[in-house]
Amino acid sequence: MKIAVFGATGRVGSVFTGLAKDAGWEVQALVRNPNTILSSFRSVASIEGNVTNSSDVEVVIKGCDAVFVALGTDKTDTLSASAPLIIESMHKYNVNRAVMIGTAGILDSRYQPGKYRFETPESKRKSTTAAEEHLKAYQAWKASGLGWTYICPTYLPDGGIQGDVRFERSYLPENGKKITVGDTARFAFDAFSQDKFIQQRIGICY
Fold it and tell me: Fold for domain 2-205?
């Protein structure tokens, strides 16, 4: 497996990259600064560039079997601006499989049909900016026709792999409060390795 990773230096992305390397996968990552790649990931093919530049995105995706996206929002439109570029490159190079890290805010509301969680009191976040950005990206993937999976964690504290993750299609499992970075990365890795949850949003928590 050769996988293109966007967001390899972030919290979830770095753990996922480690899991991929441990499994013997070949990782090709687009990074703004190659020096930010952890010393333990020196075998990762890091390509300097910008995810909002289509030519940079193409270089990373070309020759890969799948794509993993763990980009943050950082109060910018990077996530939504990059999604169409990644999708276009995947079509161009016949790469079908992708897994993204989203947010529980873009899951369906359990109590207000037709709304997303971030549009209802189910979401405890006061600001909806990040969720709105994730929603734009999700809508692009949903319309792509590709084999995407959106992993949507709730509150995401630092922490390792604990196990006993609960998950549900399109919804956050009831009374879900948190899930660690480690278990989120592990769940995403398993979605790849087991080829599960095609064209689905999956809410995850403990």
Answer: Rossmann fold (3.40.50)
